[in-house]
Write a structure and sequence with these properties.
The protein contains seven helices and ten strands. By secondary structure, the protein is of the alpha/beta class. It has one domain: Alpha-Beta Complex (Spore Coat Polysaccharide Biosynthesis Protein SpsA, Chain A). A hairpin with a 2-residue loop joins β2 and β3.
């Protein structure tokens, strides 16, 4: 259990490519959101779900985006503002394979940084990453400047990027970073 951190599950997206709400999509017997909540509850003392509007039937706290229709950065800001812990681990609700081993590996790199972000396939994975509370003002300033991009915001923080090589011993196939964006992704994941 990572005591100084809150898990923040981002579940406020449009799910356009999926054609239905990804959070409510049943995958391997439970909803994607329910699956990620269960994993996060095993690793963190507090779990929050970031949403555009409150979802019925959730037994964890929810936080609504500060700005409607503005993307995951506003969900991250709202979650950090409500967390009450020095750190947040942000994870998308469509990442059903996240594991305690990967979370622990990423957590080990937090010292001296404002964010710990995996690099997979040469790209940052900002929705499977740790963020320090002291990054909140930078994030809000990014939004105020009209930059809604998570990757753009990362350029303004002290980030520890974690390479694939540093993750492979705890996730050899890097499955934790496979997200379900389309119906084809779901079929691939079920295999």
């Amino acid at each position: 259990m990572i005591e100084d951190c809150t898990a923040l599950i981002l579940a406020g997206g449009d799910s356009r490519r999926m054609g239905q709400d990804k959070a409510d999509l049943v995958f391997d017997g439970r909803t994607l959101l329910g699956r990620v909540i269960a994993t996060m509850q095993l690793n963190f003392p507090k779990v929050i779900v970031s949403v555009r509007q409150t979802r019925a039937g959730l037994d964890v706290p929810q936080v609504c985006d500060e700005l409607p229709e503005s993307g995951p950065l506003t969900g991250l800001i709202a979650g950090l503002a409500q967390a009450g812990t020095p750190w947040v681990f942000a994870v998308a609700c469509d990442m059903p394979f996240m594991t305690a081993a990967v979370i622990s590996r990423l957590a080990a790199y937090r010292n001296g940084h404002q964010a710990v972000v995996p690099l997979v396939g040469g790209y940052p994975q900002p929705l499977a990453a740790f963020y320090a509370m002291n990054a909140l003002d930078v994030m809000r300033a990014s939004i105020a400047q009209g930059d809604m991009s998570l990757r753009g915001m990362l350029q303004k923080l002290e980030v520890r990027y974690v390479s694939e090589a540093e993750l492979r011993d705890c996730d050899p196939q890097l499955r934790c970073f496979f997200d379900l964006d389309t119906p084809q992704d779901v079929l691939t994941a079920l295999k």
